[in-house]
Every structure is written in structure tokens, then in C-alpha cells.
Design a protein that fits this description.
alpha/beta; 8-stranded mixed sheet; binds adenosine-5'-diphosphate; single chain; 6-stranded antiparallel sheet; globular; about 400 residues; binds magnesium ion
Length: about 400
């Protein structure tokens, strides 16, 4: 049995026209002889009737005190409405389908409401339904805890539902349908001449996703990588093949050079605050004190530089005041620079290539953009800039590395 998992994101299901495109992709693959498992997100974006953000606003406008367990229950409605809508449209075309919630589809998770981790996927019911239905529709982003409570997997969680199902069902492929033509060299909303990448390795996209490219969730890529399931990221609104994500050995017909590129793309995380804590004489334990406190308060830290003069790191803007309060309680005198953005240059081949940092500095200097902090690893170089310089920095770096060509 050839099983294909298709995942359709919020904008792909938002309008009657978009849903017509979705149905075309389903009909085409059924005609090819595939058994289809279709994972859906909630329809639309913030403001649309049943979108996830709309449901969150709904809860906030009714006392803003909904407990996490009940919030997850509310959020599950978005995907259920979306799945039932698709089921009606398919049945009207005599395509038989069945809707399974995350729980019915076998997603067992921990009980970390709002950001649950998948512990296991037991897809017995899906296999059973596939025997006599053309399409099994699964509500993305959901699971069930050991106690039997509905849970959600966090933002972008439907991508994770899709690849986890792909792995559990030993699917031939997981197709992630979205509103862009695949994975591009940068976010096309900010960099107009960003170019679709025909192939990327799991490692490359995992890196890009971790650095903020929200086209696919990093956890979704990790699961696909562990199980070796190829993933295609492609547009709902065209017939293009999009981007194939696999191990480089899987790129059989790759022309020379595609995999040898040293920079794959540029990504960003906006809205971060840089915190600096200078070391006073005698405070040998400063670093330990700072990072233990952040960990104890569940504040995620990034971009850490430790020197004898003190520590510098970043937190998300929305966690900054909490972080600063905790540091002051320790008797420290932190300095904060809010409104920063982390811009990353990502590539498989950055390691050991001379001159990459020089190129980055040159590109930013040409635009008068100050670098507030920088760091590098084998595969990524990060720079921290003021948020108002972020878009210009992305465009300048994209151009400097000739990613538009
Ligand atoms: P969906 O609802 O289909 O999951 P998302 O909004 O989560 O869609 O992801 C698609 C969006 O990701 C695109 O509209 C694009 O703006 C953004 N994006 C960010 N970085 C990239 C990138 N490198 N390539 C493609 N899209 C990107
Ligand atoms: Mg998404």
C-alpha cells in the first residue's frame, strides 16, 4: 500500500478557492493510486472565524483566565471544524473520507498543555480506516495525554503531526502544502527576490527552521530526519514540485554545485532583547548565577557570550522584564537593549571557508548597520542588529551571498 501524507496549512484552507486547490491535490494523488492521510490545520489566520489566534482572542476576551487544559480543548475546535469542512467537500464529490481527531489518530502526548510532546503514535485506527475510505483526514496539532485530556503541540504543530504520522505509517512521502513555492533562500515576505530551493538536506532546513524560518517546524524536520521519510514543501496554489527535503544521498538527479553551496539561506528571529550583566570584583559565580536563575524561571536564553567582563545574552522581548526582575532580585545591575533581531546566515559548508564573516561585515557596513553581537558555528553565523535594521540586513546579506541568482 503506497501511503502519502499531505498536510495543508491555515491559508491553504482559508477560502473556498483555496479549498478547491486542496481538493485538486487530493484528487491528483488518488488518481495516482496513493492511499491518502490528510492532516489539516485550523482555517485562516488571526481574525478569521475559526483560526487558532481567533480562538485565543476569544478566550482572552472572556475573562482571560481559561486554564491551560481547557484552552487546549478550545484550540482543538479549530482543526476539527477545518477537518469537517474538508470532509463535506470531499463527500460532495463522492470521495469517501473519515475525520479522526489527534486522539483517535493515535497521538499520545505528555500533558504539557499548549506545547505537548508526542510520546508515541499508534496509528491502528488509521490503517483500519484506510482499508475502506479514500481519504483519512486527521486534525493536526493535537494529541491526547495519558489521563485522556486533549493536548495541543504548540505553534506550527500540524507540521509535526504530519511528519510523525509519516514515520508511524511508513509513508512514501510527506507533502507539506503552504502558501509559498517551497523553502526559499529567505522569507519572501521580507526579501522579494528570495528563490525557491529545489533540494535541501534535513540538516540545512532544520537549521533554518531553528533560526526562525517558520515555513516548517524544526521538530517536524527532526522527526522526518530520524525516520528518513522524505518531505516535500510545496504550494497549495500551484502544481510546482516545491522543495524536496531528504538526505543528500537522496538527491539523485542533482546538478553539480547544488549541494556544494556553502550558504543555503538567511533567516531571522525578531523581537529579542540583549541583556548585559557586568561582573563586579569578587562575583566569580556570576555566570552560573545568571543562567541558573533563567533556567529556574523557564526563560529561554540565546546568543550567549561569556567573558571575564561579564555575560551577554538575549531573551525574547516578551520575557525580558521578567528576566530583568529576577536578575535585580539577585542584587545584579543588568542592562537591557530591547528591539533587537537575530539574523542568521545558514549553510552546510560554512565551516572553514575563509572570508564569510568578512563578507557579512562588509554587507552590513555598506548599509551602515551596526552589529551588536555575533557568533558562529559549523553551519551558521549569527549577528544581532537593531530591529529597525533587520529587513535591510536580510536583503543586504541575501544579495552579498548571491542567493537571488
Ligand atoms: P502554514 O499555515 O501553511 O503552515 P506558515 O505561515 O506557517 O504557513 O509558513 C509559511 C510562511 O513561512 C510563508 O508565507 C513565508 O512567509 C514564511 N517563511 C519564512 N521563511 C521562509 C523561507 N525560508 N522559505 C519559505 N517561506 C518562509
Ligand atoms: Mg506553519
Amino acid at each position: 500500500m503506497r501511503i502519502l501524507v499531505q498536510k495543508f496549512g491555515g491559508t491553504s484552507l482559508a477560502t473556498p478557492e483555496a479549498r478547491e486547490h486542496v481538493i485538486k491535490h487530493i484528487e491528483r494523488e488518488l488518481a495516482e493510486g496513493c492511499r491518502l492521510v490528510v492532516v489539516v490545520s485550523a482555517m485562516g489566520r488571526k481574525g478569521d472565524p475559526y483560526a487558532t489566534d481567533t480562538l485565543l482572542d476569544w478566550a482572552a476576551s472572556h475573562g482571560n483566565a481559561l486554564p491551560p487544559r481547557e484552552k487546549d480543548l478550545l484550540l482543538c475546535c479549530g482543526e476539527i471544524i477545518s477537518a469537517a469542512t474538508l470532509c463535506s467537500l470531499l463527500e460532495a464529490r463522492s470521495i469517501s473520507s473519515v475525520v479522526l481527531t489527534g486522539a483517535q489518530a493515535g497521538f499520545r502526548t505528555d500533558d504539557h498543555f499548549g506545547n505537548a510532546r508526542i510520546l508515541d503514535v499508534v496509528p491502528d485506527r488509521i490503517f483500519k480506516e484506510l482499508k475502506d475510505k479514500d481519504v483519512v483526514i486527521v486534525t493536526g496539532f493535537q494529541g491526547i495525554s495519558e489521563k485522556g485530556d486533549f493536548t495541543t503541540l504548540g505553534r506550527g504543530g500540524s507540521d509535526t503531526s504530519a511528519t510523525a504520522l509519516g514515520a508511524a505509517l511508513h509513508a512514501e512521502m510527506v507533502d507539506i502544502y503552504t502558501d509559498v513555492n517551497g523553502i526559499l533562500t529567505a522569507d519572501p515576505r521580507l526579501v522579494e527576490d528570495a528563490r525557491p530551493l529545489p533540494y535541501v538536506s534535513y540538516a540545512e532546513i532544520c537549521n533554518m527552521a531553528h533560526q526562525g524560518a517558520k515555513v516548517i517546524h524544526p521538530r517536524a524536520v527532526e522527526i522526518a530526519m530520524q525516520s528518513g521519510i522524505p518531505v516535500r514543501v510545496r504550494s497549495t496554489f500551484s502544481e510546482g514540485k516545491g522543495t524536496l527535503v531528504a538526505n543528500p544521498e537522496g538527491f539523485k538527479d542533482v546538478q553539480n554545485g547544488i549541494i556544494d553551496r556553502y550558504v543555503t539561506g538567511i533567516a531571522y528571529v525578531g523581537n529579542v532583547t540583549q541583556i548585559t550583566v557586568e561582573s563586579d570584583e569578587g562575583s566569580h559565580h556570576l555566570q552560573l548565577q545568571v543562567f541558573k536563575t533563567m533556567a529556574a524561571n523557564d526563560i529561554s536564553v540565546d546568543f550567549i557570550n561569556v567573558t571575564p567582563a561579564g555575560v551577554v545574552y538575549t531573551v525574547f522581548d516578551f520575557e525580558a522584564s521578567r528576566a530583568l526582575d529576577r536578575l535585580r532580585e539577585l542584587g545584579l545591575h543588568p542592562k537591557a537593549l530591547s528591539g533587537c533581531a537575530k539574523v542568521s546566515v545558514i549553510g552546510g559548508g560554512i565551516n572553514g571557508v575563509p572570508g564569510i564573516m568578512a563578507k557579512i561585515v562588509e554587507a552590513l557596513a555598506e548599509k551602515d548597520i551596526s552589529i551588536l553581537q555575533s557568533a558562529d558555528s559549523n553551519t551558521t553565523i549569527w549577528v544581532l542588529v537593531h530591529k529597525q535594521d533587520m529587513v535591510q540586513a536580510l536583503r543586504a546579506l541575501h544579495k552579498k551571498f548571491e542567493l537571488h541568482i
